[in-house]
Design goal:
Number of strands: 12
CATH topology: Ribosomal Protein S5, domain 2
CATH architecture: 2-Layer Sandwich
Number of domains: 1
Shape: globular
Largest sheet: 8 strands, mixed
Length: 295
């Protein structure tokens, strides 16, 4: 038996930074949305204990264990009966790394959900989310995906909405943005205590399209864009193309805008195609990682 897991990217419809926590993380309030850009993770039982990870597609880079490998280690620690089990994993990367799209977090959630099916562990969403919280702030969100509000350091996830099916224009420059670097810029610039995230969540739940777009916000824009003029110029190209409220996703480097129709989305994408960025037209999705079984 083989398992195929579709691991979606996300955008942040809103992101507010509330302050520094005693554990060193930042307190955030964010509204997350999965989109149709996806990595593919293929899993099968291996005769050798542990995980053997093969990679294809976009480069990942960096030193140390991949988040997929860390997810396997977390699962084994929680389920000692897997200590002698082996899994072969092939990860095809389509989500750019360091782009604010959560690809690594989605892949980690995909490993947890896929291994759960592969070995018949019977873990429910809550148990998978609990394991995912040990791996990173965004990882629990991808267990269910859709539209959700993340609080704490982002790991406390509550489903909202969902946002009605929407076209998204996504543009990713050919460079990554370090999340730790971006958070470092926020030391003296927080986004207050107003409950703007609740306003955005309410607009989404009511299906109020104009109010949803008006309520979008990203705390990183004021600190990241002045340091990275190429992203600032890309945002201006969105505006010149008639896009409504283009926004940074996460700490960047990707920018996105919501569109009412496919024609509107493709018109914006065509207008910014000459920019130094990878431009995609995608859709919102009401699911997180999706597991399929094949003989």
């Amino acid at each position: 038996m083989a398992i195929r897991v579709r691991c979606p990217a996300k955008i942040n419809l809103g992101l507010w930074i509330r302050g520094r926590r005693p554990d060193g993380f930042h307190e955030i309030d964010t509204v997350l949305q999965t989109i149709s850009l996806e990595d593919l993770l293929e899993l099968s039982v291996d005769a050798h204990p542990g995980i053997r990870l093969e990679r294809a597609g976009l480069p990942i880079g960096g030193a140390g264990p991949d988040l997929v490998e860390r997810a396997w280690a977390t699962l084994v620690a929680a389920r000692p009966d897997l200590e002698r089990a082996g899994v072969r994993a092939r990860l095809t990367k389509r989500i750019p790394v360091g782009a604010g799209l959560g690809g690594g977090s989605s892949d980690a959630a995909g490993l947890l959900a896929g291994a759960n099916a592969l070995f018949g562990l019977g873990l429910g969403h809550e148990e998978l989310e609990s394991l995912a919280a040990n791996l990173g702030s965004d990882v629990p969100f991808f267990v269910r995906g859709g539209t959700a509000r993340g609080t704490g350091r982002g790991e406390q996830v509550r489903q909202i909405g969902p946002l009605r099916p929407t076209w998204v224009v996504l543009a990713t420059p050919p460079f990554a943005v370090s999340t730790s670097w971006a958070y470092g810029l926020l030391r003296k610039k927080l986004t207050g205590t107003r409950d703007d995230a609740s306003i955005l969540a309410t607009c989404v739940a009511l299906g109020d399209w104009n109010a949803t777009r008006d309520a979008q916000f990203n705390a990183f824009e004021d600190v990241v864009l002045p340091h990275l003029p190429r992203i600032a110029a890309l945002k201006q190209s969105f505006v010149a193309a008639g896009a409504w409220r283009p926004l940074l996703s996460g700490s960047g480097s990707s920018l996105f805008t919501l569109a009412r129709t496919e024609d509107e989305a493709r018109s914006v994408a065509k207008a910014i195609a000459a920019q130094d960025a990878s431009v995609r037209v995608v859709r919102t999705r009401e699911r997180g990682v999706t597991v399929a079984t094949s003989p």
